[in-house]
Amino acid sequence: MSGPCCVQLGAKLDYQSKGTIQQIGEFQTYQIGENKSKVIVFFTDVFGYSFVNAQRLADCFHNETGATVLIPDYFQNDPIDPNIEDLFSILPDWLNKHPPSDACRIGQQFISTIQQQYQTIQVLFSFSFLFFHFRKQLLDFVDYWLLLWSKSCC
């Protein structure tokens, strides 16, 4: 399912991020906002949580919704470096080090880590990685958690 489009960088933005890097459980996480009633979890593409373009999107989501926005590092400090010239050539080896099954497990672990801290959790995916490979498992997990939460709170 991977191809050159998965690693086309586009334009790297010149932007000063507004959020901070926080340790949330086992995860380095970009965070903007302190809203405890609503959080948006943003799972990025292969460039990871520290890429300025992803952080700008998080800042925009926060500004538009007022929600806390979290971008967890689910590549364990090993995203694809956007400064490499031929990104597609390294993608197969990188995917072997970061199989989608690991990313799904880590994504579920992150959701479990934060679920007691927020009333509402919304999940956004950058389309290149987790969403294509594991949309059903992650969405089932979030739906299951929301169902449990609504039964216990309503």
Provide keyphrases for this structure.
alpha/beta; 5-stranded mixed beta sheet; disordered N terminus; 154 residues; Rossmann fold; single chain
Strands, count: 5
Rough outline: globular
Strand order of the largest sheet: 1-2-4-3-5
Fraction of residues in β-strands: 15-25%
- Rg on CA atoms, Å: 15 Å
How does CATH name the architecture? 3-Layer(aba) Sandwich
Structural class: alpha/beta
Compute the number of structural domains.
1
Percent helix among the residues?
A: 40-55%
Pick out the low-confidence regions.
Answer: 1-7, 127-135, 141-154
CATH fold annotation = Rossmann fold
Give, in order, the helices and strands.
EEEHEHHEH
The name of the CATH superfamily reads Alpha/Beta hydrolase fold, catalytic domain
Q: How many helical elements?
A: 4
Mean pLDDT: 77
Largest sheet: 5 strands, mixed
Separation of termini?
41 Å
